[in-house]
Amino acid sequence: MKVAFLGPPGAGKGTQAQAVSRERKVPHISTGDILREAVQTGTPTGLKARAYVTAGKLVPDEIVVDIVAERLARPDCKQGFLLDGFPRTLGQAKALDAILAKSSMRLDAMLYYAVSDEVVVDRISGRRLCKSCGANYHVKYIAPRKSGVCDRCGGGLYQRADDKPETVKERLRVYREQTAELIDYYRANGLLKEISADNSVEAVRADTNRVLDAVAVR
Ligand code: ADP
Ligand code: AMP
User: For the domain that residue 107 is a member of, what is the CATH number?
Assistant: First the structure.
């Protein structure tokens, strides 16, 4: 299963991709997670990416494409992968086609999580992550049993720096300006599968599974 997840920040891509990864044993590759980790640990890539991530801008294509090419070349991706947050520009989409073509592969589907702006803002403002295990919560919709504490590992929960309102506004602007055109690109090549992401996590998960079960896997 070679699938990618498209949609605005906060649409619920990561939440769904994590569940699919667990249930179907396919690696979940989130460029946002990889970049945040690189920034946090101060790797050469992290140092280059830091200013873009902090400002809510896209990291230049060549940096992100190299990260993805290296990750997709690892053996665990031979049978499939879930790309979350990549591609995000037309240049990245074409680069992905080229990376996959080199190994005689192509995407099976692009899942597009369609969601309204109000829902996105509500979801992002309540998003909390575990410092230790990365588990994803929402203060209203997916609340931990004890406020600020991870149910799975007891780690502390934090808010992403780029989930603050000023940066969210910029990320939504960037999405509209540079990423939304991918909807047409993947509709034109027949890979786009639209999912109504305004619904509950369980309803979106059911739709995601229905779409994945119907996708012709190469
Ligand atoms: P993305 O990966 O698209 O940026 P996330 O998966 O991190 O989005 O979800 C954003 C926030 O919304 C998180 O706090 C998550 O727990 C919550 N969330 C995700 N899907 C839903 C949903 N269907 N209903 C309510 N909250 C959701
Ligand atoms: P995300 O976790 O997907 O919301 O991404 C967080 C941030 O990481 C984005 O605002 C960008 O700065 C950067 N980023 C993640 N994926 C990409 C990508 N495919 N291209 C460029 N920048 C990215």
Answer: 3.40.50.300
Q: Which of the listed residues 35, 39, 166, 182 should we mutate to test ligand 2's pocket, taking the one with most ligand atoms within 8 A of CB?
A: 35
Residue with tokens 């509709």: 187
pTM comes to 0.95
In a domain, 209, yes or no: yes
Residues at CB less than 6 angstroms from ligand 2: 9, 31-32, 35, 52-53, 56-59, 64, 85-86, 88, 92, 162, 171
pLDDT in tens, 65-86: 999 999 999 999 988 999 999 9
Instruction: For residue 31, tell me if it sits in a domain.
Output: no
Q: What is the pLDDT of residues 104-116, one digit of tens each?
A: 889 999 999 999 9
Residue 107's closest CA among 30, 43, 192, 26? 192
Reduced to 3 states (helix: H, G, I; strand: E, B; else coil), residue 206 is helix
